[in-house]
Amino acid sequence: MYNMTIEELLDKYPFSLAYFQDNKIEIEGRENLTFNEYLDSLSSEYIEDMAIDKEVLLEGLDLFIQQMNSFLEVEEDKGIYSLSILPGNNKSGEREGFNELTIRKSEIVSIVGPTGSGKSRLLADIEWTAQNDTPTGRTILINGELPDKKWRFSSNNKLVAQLSQNMNFVMDLTVMEFLQLHAESRMVVDIEGTIERIIQQANNLAGEKFQLDTPVTALSGGQSRALMIADTAILSSSPIVLIDEIENAGIDRRKALDLLVSEDKIVLMATHDPTLALIADKRIVIKNGGISEVIDTTKEEKEILHKLEEMDLYIQQMRSDLRKGNILEND
Ligand SMILES: Nc1ncnc2c1ncn2[C@@H]1O[C@H](COP(=O)(O)OP(=O)(O)O)[C@@H](O)[C@H]1O
Ligand SMILES: [Mg+2]
After folding, report:
1. Is the CB of 265 inside a 6 Å radius of any atom of ligand 1?
2. Ligand 1 binding pocket mutation candidate from 121, 123, 283, 287 (most atoms within 8 A of CB)
3. Where would you tag: which of 34, 56, 128, 165 has the fewest CB atoms within 10 A of its CB?
4. Which residue's alpha carbon is at the smallest distance from atom 15 of ligand 1?
């Protein structure tokens, strides 16, 4: 960095301005010099008056930038604000029909297309942060840049949380033990309060309530899905959530999405369910392994969504009445 001008330095490391200010170094009008040249240009009286030690200042800048960089890198884990997909090829080897698709924090994008068309493949590309090294040849950017491959392997601070079609617990733990382990590994301060929140939210999503002492292996499909969603939303620090066809899980899908999205995530969701597809701001249409279109949900579609949600509510009501042993009636 010694051969960068101050201007270039400030451009690349904007925080270095703080270093100059803290050390009362007046760089104004001399940004075209390197810091070294700047120090050389000072008169000896000025250097004496200001008690300037050139070596100390030069080394100090170096150290300051190093420390700020490593500090910011830690912060960067949580500072993910966008995910971009760059095109690859469909199953016939043809280039995909879009330039670059960027999805931002708190956005929900759905993925639609026939079975076998490549929806799960797209989610897998994102999970792997593909860099032209998957069957599709797609590239995934994070905050507009090629991400560090470390994301692929770090398990504790994963970039991506995935909720997939089949989720089975193999370990013999109660819900409480499972959440406690997870909360501890995430170094949560208020473990009890966090577990309480997760249980509450999970029960809010699942049809049938469960307790903290329920063994996870005894949860129904819908209950375990609800638990994983609440756990992901509240406990996972992963800024990107990928959901593969949760529609048949017997949970309140709308609430599940609201929960996931309220925590400032980037959400991608493969679905055959029109309600879920239209909740999204955008939908990716997949054909023959390739992204053929990206459609913004229209105003009219949002009105249709409203109708669909009323129909959903009606179906849920009927389902719940039947479960309770009620006789259904026309109103
Ligand atoms: N662009 C592509 N190039 C090559 N193979 C692909 C591509 N897209 C998908 N595939 C493959 O096609 C198969 C079906 O894709 P999948 O993602 O499981 O479909 P879906 O989830 O839509 O049912 C998978 O084996 C997948 O790896
Ligand atoms: Mg699939």
Report:
1. no
2. 121
3. 56
4. 118
Label residue 5 left, alpha or beta by phi (over 0 means left) and psi (-120 to 50 means alpha): beta
- Match domain 82-297 to its CATH number in 2.40.340.10, 3.10.580.10, 3.90.1300.10, 3.40.50.300: 3.40.50.300
Domain extents in the chain: 6-76, 82-297
CA dihedral 162, 163, 164, 166 (to 10 degrees): 130
The atom of ligand 1 lying closest to the CA of 122 is 17
Residue 329: burial class (beta carbons within 10 Å; 0-12, 13-18, 19+): exposed
Q: Report the predicted TM-score, pTM, of the whole model to 2 decimal places.
A: 0.69
Distance from the CA of 117 to the center of ligand 1, in angstroms? 6
- pLDDT per residue, tens digit, the chain (331 aa), is 667 899 888 888 877 888 888 888 888 888 899 998 999 998 888 888 888 888 888 888 888 887 776 665 544 445 788 999 999 999 999 999 899 999 998 889 999 999 999 999 999 999 889 999 999 999 999 999 998 777 676 545 566 776 655 455 556 788 998 888 878 777 677 888 999 999 999 998 887 888 889 988 888 878 888 888 888 888 876 788 888 887 666 677 778 888 877 667 899 999 998 988 999 999 999 999 999 999 999 999 999 999 998 998 888 889 889 988 999 988 7
